[in-house]
Amino acid sequence: MTMKVALIAHDRKKEEMVNFVTAYETVFAKCQLFATGTTGTRIMENTDLSVHRFMSGPLGGDQQIGAMVATNDLDLIVFLRDPLMAQPHEPDIIALLRLCDVQGIPVATNIATAEILVKAMDRGDFAWRELVHKYKPGVDE
């Protein structure tokens, strides 16, 4: 099973995201990647990875990723948030994080947690997600 991973980074965290994805490019190369607009562009400019880009976060990209979460169609989200900057689309961010909790989708909001989750994914510790994909709760209810 190919892991589906979403990558989101606030403006002041985009460089950190690019550095992180570059460091783990061989791991991410085995995944199907999704990202909000500029983050996805920056990743593709700096790596050999292919990324399906959604709209910019404030323009609906967070909600587009949220739609994938709602249908349990993602396996991991790395969302490098800027906790020191107010975000005009904060309600969208909170809704996305809530959906991750509802669906049990691991989400990292800082680089330390992101590294732990990506290393676990690389070891195969996410095999339980195969069962989730096989029996998507709520889809046929």
UniProtKB/TrEMBL annotation:
Q: What is the lineage of its organism?
A: Bacteria, Bacillati, Bacillota, Bacilli, Bacillales
Tell me which GO cellular component terms the UniProt record holds. Answer: cytosol
Q: Give the protein's function.
A: Catalyzes the formation of methylglyoxal from dihydroxyacetone phosphate.
Q: Which GO terms describe its biological process?
A: methylglyoxal biosynthetic process
- The gene that this protein is the product of is mgsA
E.C. number: 4.2.3.3
- Residue ranges constituting the MGS-like domain according to the UniProt record: 1-141
Quote the HAMAP family the UniProt record gives. Answer: Methylglyoxal_synth
The catalytic site is made up of: 62 (proton donor/acceptor)
Q: How is this protein named in the record?
A: Methylglyoxal synthase
Q: List, in alphabetical order, the Gene Ontology terms for molecular function in this entry.
A: methylglyoxal synthase activity
Per UniProt, the keywords (alphabetical) are:
Lyase
**Group of enzyme by EC:** lyase
List residues binding substrate.
Answer: 10, 14, 36-39, 56-57, 89
| InterPro entries tied to this protein | Methylgl_synth (IPR004363), Methylglyoxal_synth_AS (IPR018148), MGS-like_dom (IPR011607), MGS-like_dom_sf (IPR036914)
The reaction(s) this protein catalyses: dihydroxyacetone phosphate = methylglyoxal + phosphate
Task: Give the organism, scientific name.
Answer: Paenibacillus thalictri
Family, per the entry?
Belongs to the methylglyoxal synthase family.
